[in-house]
Fold this protein.
Amino acid sequence: MRVDRRLGGIGGLLLGVVLTAVAAAEPGAADTPKGRIEALLKTGSDSRLRWGRVPDFRTRIENLYAQRGYRPLWVQEGRPVPQSSEIVACLGQAETKGLRRGDYDVDRLGIWVDRLDAGGAVDAEQVALFDVAMTLAVARYATHLSTGRIHPRKVNFGFDTERKKVDLAALMAAILQDPHPCGSISALEPKISFYRALIGALARYRGLAEKIGPMDIPLPAKLEPGDRHPDVPTLRTLLVSLGDLAPDAASPRDPEVYSGAIVEAVKRFQIRHGLTPDSVVGKATQAALKVPLTARVRQIELGLERLRWLPEPPGGPYLLVNIPSFHLFGYRNGADEERPDLVMNIIVGQAVSGRATPIFHSDMTYIVFRPYWNVPYGITVKEMLPGILKSPDYLARHDLEIVPGFGSGVPVYEADWGTIQGLSSGALRLRQRPGPKNALGLVKFAFPNTDNIYLHGTPSRNLFQRSRRDFSHGCIRVEDPVGLAEFVLERQGGWTRERIEQAMNGSQSKIVTLKYPVPVYLFYSTVLLGPDGEVQFFQDIYGHDRVLEDLLAREFPPIDPEGKVP
């Protein structure tokens, strides 16, 4: 079998797929495009493919071609169909979406389209190679736009992307019937407003990264308002470039004095980077100033990847809880809303083993006014028992009671050596009575999940003023439980703010089942867009960015390490 080595050099995944399959093709395969495509798809050896997920595409692509009798999709009478050039151009926009154009062999496919379009003798083998290569590239790009390059389960995120799986046959039909087919592919991108905003932020920060080099300004260990330093003008220039300081902002008479508009600009920079907004350029602020803008670009790309994992929001209300920014966002009208209707500070699980808040999606189905707190066994043994053993009135002071199990109507046991032993062994349980001392506050928002995570109020209000707020055992404390209850119960009917406050301060616990469950997305992105469109960056408190970046770097091992175009 003769293989055109120039056209065979498509590189990356495409080279691995098509050449492996062609090498294994049966000698007797009909020397027509249909015959070559069928042989190419049926005799490929998955064990030799360079990218492990390709077999998933291969089955779907084989079914696609089988439905067409293995006729080419992209070639008619030896020439590429008119949509071919635009599709290659569409693939070439991958970088603007936070993806890598090299993963889709854009340059090689473009050269191939030009060669075929120029006419001349083209044998069946070359048509088959090109056709399958184009289909693979489109299938891969469409899938990455819709559900990301990495499956969320690989990083222990509880999102199901199966419902977003691309219908390859429908997509190809739409592309090949549309003179401007890129729209069919773009329609697969997430509809959530955060995604659209981050696409714009990516372009802006790519531009900034090209203009601004290393940002290591040799400031003193602490620069406070009123201080004087020769590098204050350099700091001013940087803040103007980043958009924290207006270019026409008034300068002090002495440009080396840290005062006036630049002080407020530093405060804005600190707010955008999740720091304490005190306008003091100390250790944390200087560290944020020194982060290369290329690293900020990467943060945005990681944020886009994770947004592709989210299920599409419904048409009605939903909640998005972003862990690194310590914020909850509520949207009343689904994905079309550009700005959230509800924003509040939250407290999340500590950045230590066993306490990090998990990332998943569930639907909120009920809320509890004046809830009991069913104390987990680990907290009972590690945090409660020492106090109980030390002080006879510990239980009374903390509104705690010993019970045989969690549920309504269970008996309450007196504290004695036997019941305390029962707590230690797990035979008995500890719970906290409803009231102002209760760790869950006066309302609990429940959405079924295997980790027993929920949103709730808290009697400890002072922690919401911290810039970094990972203090819980995993559940999420909300700063404004009344406001959240109003949002959740809005479609329930009859639940005014006054009624909510009465239920929270009543004498009995009350469970309210939601007529319309509210989707809750516990999410993780170290970059967001603020209310005025400003780009906000946050610490990678759980190390998820590092893990995802490593996985993305390990995908698509190149066959041609130099990336040469044949």
In short: The radius of gyration is 29 Å.
